[in-house]
Amino acid sequence: SSGINAEYGDTGEWAIPGGMVEAGDTVSATLRKEFGEEALASMEMPKKEQERVMKLTGELFKGAGTTLYRGYVDDPRNTDNAWMETVVVNFHDTQDLFSKFKLKAGDDAGAVSWVVASSSLPMYASHSQFVKAAVMNLAASW
Fold first, then answer.
1. What does DSSP assign to residue 72?
2. In this predicted model, what pLDDT tens digit does every residue of 117-126 receive, in sequence order?
């Protein structure tokens, strides 16, 4: 099983593209936006290409996806007084939409790539557990 991961320059670890849900946004809208920014560099695209990508990501992220985890996450940014909580959602591409995207690191991602899901892949914080949950949900090998 494989998935798209972004490598972040500040840690050199791989992570699932994502970000903070802003007030008034839904989780799926945030995932769509962050995927475009981090894995497709959508903010750098000409307007016409941004529109094409928005249409395709709209198809990819339509529906609720499968929630794999919701709650506290072990994260180096946590303190005694503040901590990270997350929602991990798997959107499985059954329409081969990913073949229509050219991956390009954008926003705070240093690199972006298809990677084979593996317990040996150095991943940020709890992301390895989340990838494992997606692999198990799809009955693939870990």
1. E
2. 888 888 988 9
